[in-house]
Structure formats: C-alpha cells, structure tokens
Amino acid sequence: MSNNWLVENLQNALETWNSKLSEIWRLLSESPTEFKGGGIWNVMVNINGTLKAIGYALLVLFFLVGIMRQFHSFAEVKRPEQIFKLFLRFVLAKAAVTWGLELMMAMFKIAQGIIGKIMEASGIGGGGGAYLPSDMIETIEECSFWESIPLWAVTLIGSLLVTVLSFIMILTVYGRFFRLYIYAAIAPIPLSSFAGEETASIGKSFVKSFAAVCLEGTVIVLACIIYSLFASSPPSVDITASAVTQVWTYIGELLFNMLVLVGTIKLSDRVIKEMMGL
Length: 278
What we know:
Blueprint: H1 5-27, H2 39-70, H3 74-77, H4 80-98, H5 100-122, H6 134-141, H7 145-186, H8 188-191, H9 200-231, H10 243-266, H11 268-275
C-alpha cells in the first residue's frame, strides 16, 4: 500500500470492488440452505409448512370452482374419463403443494449445476480484479502539491463511484437470495392453483418466475466472466499525458467496464424473463 493519500484512496476503492466481486463469485455457487449458516432457510421452511394448511384449503376451493365452471351438469362429471381426469388433476395438485419445496430445490440444483459448468469451462478461479498500474502510482506520487490538487477531485469522484457500484452490485446478488426465500416460503399458495383448470395459469407463472430467479445466476456469472476478461487487459493510458489525464482516462474506462457489469447484473432478471417468455 502506498503512503500517498491519493493512491491509497483509489486502492481502497478498488479493493472494495475486488472483495465484492469475489463475494459474488462465492455466492453464485452457494445454496439458500447454506446461506448465512442456513438459519434463514430454516425459518422459510417453517413458514412453508405452516402455509401448506392454507394451500390445501385453496386447493379444494380451486378444484370445486374449476368443476363448476368446466361442467354444465353433474352428468358430465360422472363419465369415467372425466372422473379419472379430475382425480389425476387433484392428486397432482396436492403433490405440488405437499412436495413443492422439494421440487423447487431440485430446479435450483439444476440451475446451480449449469452455473458450475460455466465456471469450470471459463477457467477463471475468481471474479477478476482491478488494480492501479505501477506506472500510474509512480506518476501520482511524483506530482507536486499544486499538480495534485485537480487529482483530489478526480480520485474522490472515481473512488466514490467505484464504491457505490460495488455495493449496488452485491445488493443485487443478495436480492436474488431474498427472492428465492420468498418464493420458497409462499409456494403452497400459488401451487394450489393447479387444482383448477382455469386457475392453473397462476401456478405456471409462479414456477416460471421461480425458474427465472434460479437462472439469474447464469447471467450474473457470465457477466462476471466477461468483465474479468476485460479487466485482464488494463485500460491503455498515454504515459506522456499529465497525471490528471492519465488518472481520468484510466478511471473512466474502468468505470465504464464496471457500469456494464453492474447494469448486466441489474438486468439479469429481465433478460431471463424475456428468454422464458414471461
């Protein structure tokens, strides 16, 4: 770490960015059952179990409403093929409510397997990092007091933006875990809608939305990999330019790459939903 305040300020901001990027890389391979020691997941499982009673009640209600809307007379319901069809729908809907959480976790494990394969194929062991080149550090340290005055503004603005982008990025990934927990907790209620033919669209939308949240990780990991490849080639800086120009050019290009990464992560939910036709 340099003793120069300007260099130290930039390095601290980049260290914050690198640490958050590494944390994202770790979180992408972590299950909700393991996140924060599994305490949050245990509470969500308890809530899910409590809501199953409401789910069963709604299941019967949706089933009866579906029968009344689908059939105009009781004679139609008495036909063997209709009885079998209704019985099968009811059994499958009950199974969805009873084992919905297990089925959802199976979907999540499939998505995690895809993420793991992408990580393995990329050959990148971490999220990639951003560092100040040694030449730029020397240039900043050699600046006189008056030359360093405009650098204060550049480094302060650059460091602030890098720090803010770091927290926006990590909060988006944490938000994915929050949505996984919410879906897991309330699952029995929307899944009970499969009991009725006309209400089944609610359950289908729920399952698709949950799958979209699971697959968000694939977009996020791809964005991190692409950013890492960009970051492996540091921004080109004209060493003959003034120190302010060099720092501004470097920080500007660095911020552009960071903005692209953060923007992609923020839009990951929309990208997956568009791919799934939601």
